[in-house]
Every structure is written in C-alpha cells, then in structure tokens.
Automatic annotation (TrEMBL), chain A:
Gene3D superfamilies on file: P-loop containing nucleotide triphosphate hydrolases (3.40.50.300)
Protein source organism: Halovenus aranensis
Keywords annotated in UniProt: ATP-binding, Nucleotide-binding, Transport
GO molecular function: ATP binding; ATP hydrolysis activity
InterPro entries recorded: AAA+_ATPase, ABC_transporter-like_ATP-bd, ABC_transporter_ATP-binding, P-loop_NTPase
Record's protein name: ABC-2 type transport system ATP-binding protein
Annotated ABC transporter domain residues: 4-232
PANTHER family, sorted: ABC TRANSPORTER ATP-BINDING PROTEIN, ABC TRANSPORTER ATP-BINDING PROTEIN NATA
Pfam families named in the record: ABC_tran
Entry similarity comment: Belongs to the ABC transporter superfamily.
From TrEMBL, chain B:
Keywords: Membrane, Transmembrane, Transmembrane helix
Record-given protein name: ABC-2 type transport system permease protein
TM regions (residue ranges): 18-36, 48-67, 105-125, 137-159, 166-187, 199-219, 260-278, 290-310, 336-356, 362-383, 395-417, 423-444
Provenance organism: Halovenus aranensis
Superkingdom, natural source: Archaea
Length: 243, 458
C-alpha cells in the first residue's frame, strides 16, 4: 500500500476551490516534493493528509489510515512541520520538546532531546527561552519536534527556510538519510533547488489540481523550472519558481 | 491602525455584527439604569457606579500593555500589526506605542464609551438627567476609562524599570490618602463631573493628561531585553499537576511580562469592584448583603480574566498537529485555570476578612470555586481558545453575558436577601453554585469535541 493516496480530493472555502479533484499517490520510502505557486493548495493538502482539516469530498489514506475518520491515529504516526510556526515563546527548546514528548507519549524523551539537539546543533540553547532565539534556531527546534518520535512519514512545509548554508546542508543529509532508512518524506516548497536536490519525485500543483509529476534527476539543468513554467504558463510562473 | 482594527474585527464577525456591538452596549446600559431605578437607586449613584466600572475596565484594558511589551520585546517575531513595525519603518517604538494607545482609546470611545453614554439618552428624555449633564458625562466617562488604562499602563512601564518604584508610587498614593486626607475622586474625571467648574475640570483631567504622557515615556520595550535561560526541571515539576498540557500554560504565564501578578491584578480589579459595590449597596439601601456570597460570585465572574491569560499564548490550530484531542487540551487548561484562580480568589476572600465577619465569608469559599468551574465551562464552550477576540462578537457577547447572568443574578439576589432570610439565602446560594458547577463540568466535557470539529471544518 502507498504511504499516501488521495482520489478526487476537493476542498472548498466558501467560493474558493482550494483543491479541485487532487489525485496523488506516494510510495513508501519516497522523498516527494509538492511544488506550486502561492495559493495553489499545498498547505491545504498537507492539512487534510494530517487530519487537521476535513475535505469537502474525495478519498484519502495515509499509512493505511483515514485521516478524516481517525485524525489522532494519523497524527500519532506522522511528523508535521508547518511553514510558519515557532516553538512556544515562553518555553525553552528543552521544555517544548518535553511537551511534545508528553503529548506523543515518548518514554525516553530526554535521551532523544540530546540526540536531536546534537544532530541539529542546538544543545547550547536548550535552556534559553524560545522568544530569545533567532529564526534559524527556532527552525532547528521545530525540525527536531518533527522527528523526535521517529515517525515513518513526515510532512514538512519549507524545510530549509531561515537556515544558514551549513545547516541547510546538514538538514539535507538528515532528510536523505531518513528516506534511505525506508521512511517517507512529503515536502512542500517554493524552492526549485530544494526539490531538485532532495526529491525523488516532484508534483506540480496549480489551482488545486496536480498538473504533472516528474523525476527531477532525469531532467536537464533548469528542467524543473522550465517544466514549472510550461505547466503553469508564462514568465510569471518562472518568476514564481525562483528562490 | 484604525483601519487595521476595523478590518480585524469585521473580518472576524462581519460588519453588521460588529457594528451592532455599540447598540447592544447602549441597550444594556439603558435597561440596567431602568432596573436600578425600579429598586429606588438614585441617578447619581448609577452615574457613580458607571464611572467606577469604566475605571476598572480601563485598568484591565491597560494591562494589555503586558502583552504588547512581550510582542515588542520579541524583536525577531513576525510583524502582523503596524505597532510591531518599528524594525522596518523609521518610527520609534515609543511613538508607535503612543499612536497605538490613542487608537485604542478612539476605538473604545466609539464602540464602548459613547454607547454607554447613549444608554442614558432615554433618561434625558424623561427628565431624570439634563442634556448638559449628559455631555459632561460623556467626557468624564471617557476620561475615567482613559485614566484607568493610563494608570495600569504607567505602572506596567515603571515595573519594566523598577519593581521598587511601583511599590513606592502605590505607597505614596496610599500615604497621601491616609495621612493627608486627599480625596482621590477630585483628581479624576468623575470629580470634574461632580464639580463642573474650570478648577474642577483642570483638577479632574490633569492626572489623566499627565499619565497619558508619562505612560509611554515610562514604557521601555527593550529595558529588560536579554537572553533568558531557565534551569531544566521546571516543566517536569509543573507536569506533576496533571500533564504537559497543564504545565505549558502555567510556564507561559509565569514567564511572560507581569508573571502570575497579572492574574492577581485582574482578580484584584474585580475584588475592588465587589468591595465598592457592597459598600455602596449598604449605604444606598440599608441592606446588609452577604459578603461571602457577593465576593464569591463576583470573584468567580472575574476568573474570566484568568481564562484569558491561560489561553493568551495559544494558536488553536497548533494543537491539531498533535495526537491529542482538544478535550485533553481543555482539560489541561482547566487544571491551569484552577491552579491559578482558586488560590488567588481564596486569598482575596481572606483579605475581605479585614472588613467583614469571617463567618459571613465562609460561604464564599463554597460559592467561589463552584461558580469558577461554571465560568470556565461556559467560556471554553462558547469561545474556545480565543476568548478575547470572540467576545467582541455582539451575538456571542450577548449569549455569554446571558449565560453568566443566569447564575450571577440569583446569587446576587440571594446575597441581598441574606439580611432578612439568612438560612434560605445561604441554602439557595450553595444549591445554585452546585448546579452551576455541574453545568460547567458538563460543558467542559463537551468543549473538546465541539472545538476539534470546528477547527477542522473551518
């Protein structure tokens, strides 16, 4: 069974059709990237797949669980990092990860905090109030909360945002190793290079529909950007795709 | 900022519902004044009460500076309001704050203070109040609200520099009242209402004008900007009160500006209102109300502010990422709410023993916690984790007010009846409180499913 499967998924916000018959299949072990311009339906897709939102119609399955009927089961099995979210301002990173460990029933959370704070290089700020951290430091803490319960499927909206180049390279390695271990990664991003470097398959979404899917490794230089522009039409789309 | 404020409210509730809010306030004031008139309460007593309530409301609004200070201090945070744009625009933070305060004052003037005054229009029509006095009332009510807000904001500003200085100011004012017999009312806009002369006006509005300047000057958003570290282990200790969902709001409250003192202050405002109302009722009607029932009820109503603080730092959708239902989230909030509000309320009931017989106050120890459970249940059920914003929705505000009044009104009547029928009034108060707590408990159990479903389908 695929890790993620949707059939004719739709979501309407009043008169706005955020998703319009989305068909998506992601196999286990894949590093899948969803590309699309602002408002194309990327965030709504992740929210539905993780049980945070109920679709208007359509079928959806994540790790053989229906997130509409069993949202807590899906959230227990996956890791989620939304694009715009910081750790709580008045908790330290250690306390936030302890909080995550508490709501996720992680028995050895302190050991995992040590492990992930070392991997993502924020051990030195574990006891600093989150409101006093830089954006990059907060992003590293948020990445740790995604993986701390060792999920087999992870959803990340813009994984490298706010990270310095060295940390970006570290995170790329972590994400690649995570998938090589047989896990599945679902990325949503605006950045072509991220999708090209990391993803084994990329889907382009526009107006709530999956326009095309490509293997970025098999495309020529600038291939993904050209595909993006062609599928979405015109120069403005090319501009939208540039980091 | 005015456009921002208007758009924020109208996008949440729609233009019509938002614009109905001042109409609702005016109707409530008219109805209250009429009902109080039926009980024989003098018009001047009603006017004094309105000033008192507006002053305490202003004090409460001024504590919003605590939240603003955290946001301003968090210079790396997202900028969603113009008041936080000091990093990118060539405008000082102090100026932004001053404009923000004036905008808030204008907002409350239009949507709250003017409707309150308009609520007295029918009394002008029937000759209970002169048109000239209504105009003065308009100004004095506005000034009184501003005085309250500027006072608490100034104290917050001074607090950001020196806790000793705040204690010094409070001690100096207290000493002035006790030793020199200074009549504070003369230095408030209400004093100007009572003494409608040039001297009265200057004396009444001068402190407000001074605080309006001193407040923003005292306010130093970067005064205590430093990297703050905390020993590990606090989360685990607080977790022993329930779970991580309980520990989190407690840590957030204790570490944000004002710490737990903002909870103490908010309930203290209600304690002050209750004490003054009890005093006024005794003077105006010669009835000796039950202090225990009255304090227990009014302090419990005041725990709405505690609910606000325990949900202040939440983005409700964050909890949709975790494998816990919203019922667990609200259970944690309830534990934190009770852990903060119960000791504070009991402390105020104990303080009341300085003026009232201990035996009379004992019933307050029963009424207060039980009605607090009801307040939590109703507030959580109706407003979810966004109590502050949603209560500006007229329909919801009316429903919320009615839900609280259903319990508070008979309890306050029982308090008033205590002098003539002590045993029945106590029995009624305890029975009502038990029923209210049961209703609150039922609502608390249902709130998780309701808000989980709402957040997922919005």
């Amino acid at each position: 069974m695929p890790a993620v499967e949707t059939q004719q998924l739709t979501k309407e916000y009043g008169a706005v059709h955020a998703l319009d018959g989305l068909d998506l299949t992601i196999e286990r072990g894949e590093l899948y990237g969803l590309l699309g311009p602002n408002g194309s339906g990327k965030t709504t897709t992740i929210e539905i797949l993780t049980g945070q939102r109920v679709p208007t119609s359509g079928e959806v399955s994540v790790l053989d669980i229906d997130p509409v009927e069993n949202p807590l089961d899906v959230r227990r099995a996956v890791g989620i990092l939304p694009e715009r979210e910081d750790p709580p301002s008045f908790l330290t990173p250690r306390e936030y990860l302890q909080f995550v460990g508490d709501v996720r029933d992680i028995a050895d959370v302190d050991a995992r905090i040590e492990e992930w704070s070392t991997k993502l290089e924020f051990r030195g700020i574990l006891d600093t109030l989150s409101t006093d951290l830089s954006e990059g430091e907060r992003q590293r803490v948020m990445l740790a909360q995604v993986f701390i319960h060792e999920p087999e499927l992870v959803f990340i909206d813009e994984p490298l945002v706010n990270l310095d180049p060295l940390m970006q390279a570290e995170v790329r390695d972590i994400l690649t190793a995570y998938c090589e271990a047989g896990n599945t990664l679902f990325l949503s991003t605006h950045f072509m290079e991220v999708a090209e470097d990391l993803c084994s398959r990329v889907g382009i979404i526009a107006d709530g529909k999956l326009v095309t899917e490509r293997d970025p490794q098999s495309l020529d230089e600038d291939g993904l950007l050209e595909t993006f522009a062609t599928e979405l039409g015109g120069e403005s789309a090319v501009e939208a795709g540039r980091p | 900022m005015l456009v921002e404020e208007f758009r924020m409210h109208t996008s949440l509730f729609g233009v019509r519902r938002f614009l109905l809010f001042p109409v609702f306030v005016a109707v409530v004031v008219t109805a209250s004044a009429w009902l109080l008139g039926l009980t024989g309460t003098a018009m001047e007593t009603v006017v004094a009460g309105v000033h008192l309530l507006v002053f305490f409301f202003g004090l409460q609004v001024g504590t919003a500076g605590l939240v603003g200070r955290d946001a301003m201090r968090n210079v790396l945070g997202e900028m969603t309001l113009l008041v936080f744009s000091g990093r990118t625009l060539p405008v000082s933070r102090r100026r932004l704050l001053s404009v923000f305060l004036l905008k808030d004052l204008a907002y409350y003037f239009l949507f709250f203070l003017t409707p309150i005054t308009a609520g007295f229009l029918p009394l002008v029509a029937v000759g209970e109040l002169s048109a000239a006095n209504l105009v003065v009332l308009w100004l004095s009510v506005t000034g009184t609200f501003g005085l309250g807000a500027a006072t608490s904001l100034t104290l917050v500003g001074v607090l950001s520099r020196s806790q000793v200085a705040v204690l010094g100011i409070v001690a100096a004012v207290a000493a002035g009242i006790v030793a020199e017999g200074i009549t504070l009312v003369s230095y408030t806009p209400y004093g100007a209402y009572l003494d409608q002369t040039v001297v009265g006006a200057v004396g009444g509005f001068l402190p407000f004008a001074v605080l309006l300047v001193v407040g923003p000057l005292a306010f130093e958003p970067t005064a205590s900007r430093r990297v703050r570290r905390f020993e590990s282990g606090r989360f685990d200790r607080l977790r022993s009160l329930g779970d991580g969902l309980t520990a989190r709001p407690l840590l957030e409250i204790t570490r944000s500006s004002g710490s737990v003192w903002k909870v103490v202050f908010s309930l203290g405002v209600l304690f002050g209102v209750a004490a003054l109302l009890l005093d006024r009722v005794a003077v105006a009607t010669r009835i000796e109300p039950s202090a225990g029932i009255a304090f227990g009820t009014l302090l419990a109503l005041g725990t709405f502010t505690t609910y606000n603080w325990v949900t202040q730092f939440d983005e409700p959708r964050e909890y949709l990422r975790y494998p816990v239902g919203m019922d667990a989230v609200f259970r944690g909030k309830r534990r934190a709410f009770l852990a903060l509000s119960l000791p504070t309320g009991v402390a105020y009931l104990t303080l009341a023993a300085v003026w009232y017989p201990v035996v009379d106050l004992l019933v307050g120890l029963v009424v207060f916690p039980l009605v607090s459970v009801y307040v939590f249940g109703v507030t959580a059920y109706l407003t979810g984790l966004s109590a502050n914003e949603l209560l500006f929705d007229t329909a919801l505000f009316a429903l919320y007010g009615a839900a609280l009044a259903v319990v508070a009104t008979p309890l306050l009547v029982a308090a008033l009846a205590h002098g003539s029928a002590p045993v029945p009034s106590l029995a009624v108060a305890v029975a009502l409180s038990v029923v209210a707590a049961a209703v609150g408990a039922v609502l608390s159990r249902r709130v998780g499913v309701r808000w989980h479903s709402r957040l997922r389908t919005e």
